[in-house]
Amino acid sequence: MSNELNKYQQDSEFANRQDDEIDLRELFSVIWQGKWLIIAITFVFAVASVAFAISQPNIYKSEALLSPADAEQGSGGLAALAGQFGGLASMAGINLGGGGGVDKTQMAIEVMKSRQFTSEFIQKHNILADLMAAEKWNMTDNTLVYDADMYDAAQSKWVREVEPPFKPEPSMQEAFKEFSKIIAVNAAKETGMVTVSVEHLSPSVAQQWVNWLVQDINNVMKERDVTEASKSIKFLESKIQQTNVADIRSILFKLVEEQAKTIMFAEVRDEYVFKTIDPALVPEEKAKPKRALICVLGTMLGGMLAVMFVLIRYFLKKED
User: Fold this and answer.
1) Which of 72, 121, 137, 235 sits at a 20 to 30 Å CA gap from 248?
2) Which has the minimum average pLDDT: 51-55, 74-78, 131-135?
């Protein structure tokens, strides 16, 4: 009985292997019979991918390499004073803060990515049309061509048709979304270097925007620190008038001195947060699209879809 059972199992396994071989042969046969259809579909996808790749405009990328400015900017001195005289100052009702300072480099990076900074940047430099309506770039005269359905360049007027609550002129929220797609600000963990890059149809526009970004972030962070230091000096001077304790007055005078250093440092240095190591250049070569890659992937996709179509059609007819 056991011999018959083993023989039955062996016969079943042999039959299954034969079925697998037959199925593979059948699949190859179906593909071979539908080779012309597969070739035709693949050819259509190849032509379509080539046409799509050619229709895509060149995008140029300009970038600058920056180094965090090595300056204490008042934070180091205040941190030292907080460690030495924090307890004594707290007796006078003054909080010198903790020993750790704020990472101005990281703060500057986050400010550059913020909605407020982006909105002020776009409005200050009047680049909304170049950002939202640019359609292509003329290399001969280095000018931008705008989408006529969105922006009338002759009259400097937005003419796009949108549904409420949107208006013909894009809002700063729309501009922020678009600007976030073309700007990149990255800090290298190993070296601490910061890279700022912009992608645009025009290489000169990309380079100009990078320069403006570096200049504006230095000015914004400078203004913030100067404003904060000025307010701190006024506060500390009022505290000096309110106390007669010599040690506390000495601490307060040192704090005023540190804040004055911050203001002085800001006024004499243009590269306040970032120093430019490698400035942005007008790129000569495009960054994208990768037209060859688009053509290859499009052709491969067409071939795979064609094979699937031939097999599915065959098995549907077989079931009928």
Assistant:
1) 72
2) 74-78
Q: For residue 29, give Cα distances in angstroms to 23, 25, 300, 302.
A: 10, 6, 21, 20
Four-residue CA torsion sign, 142, 123, 112, 272? positive
Which stretches does DSSP call E strand in the chain?
Answer: 60-68, 134-138, 143-146, 151-152, 157-158, 183-187, 194-200, 274-278
Instruction: Report the predicted TM-score, pTM, of the whole model to 2 decimal places.
Output: 0.77
pLDDT band for position 210 (50/70/90)?
very high
Q: Is 125 helix (H, G, I), strand (E, B) or coil?
A: helix
222 three-class SS = helix
Q: Which of 259, 261, 228, 222 is nearest to 111 (CA)?
A: 222
Instruction: Tell me how far apart the alpha carbons of residues 158 and 52 are, in angstroms, rounded to a whole number.
Output: 28
Q: How far apart are CA 256 and CA 275, in angstroms?
A: 27
Separation CA 191–CA 193 (nearest Å): 5
What pLDDT was estimated at residue 233?
Answer: 85
Among 225, 212, 199, which residue's Cα sits nearest to residue 279? 212
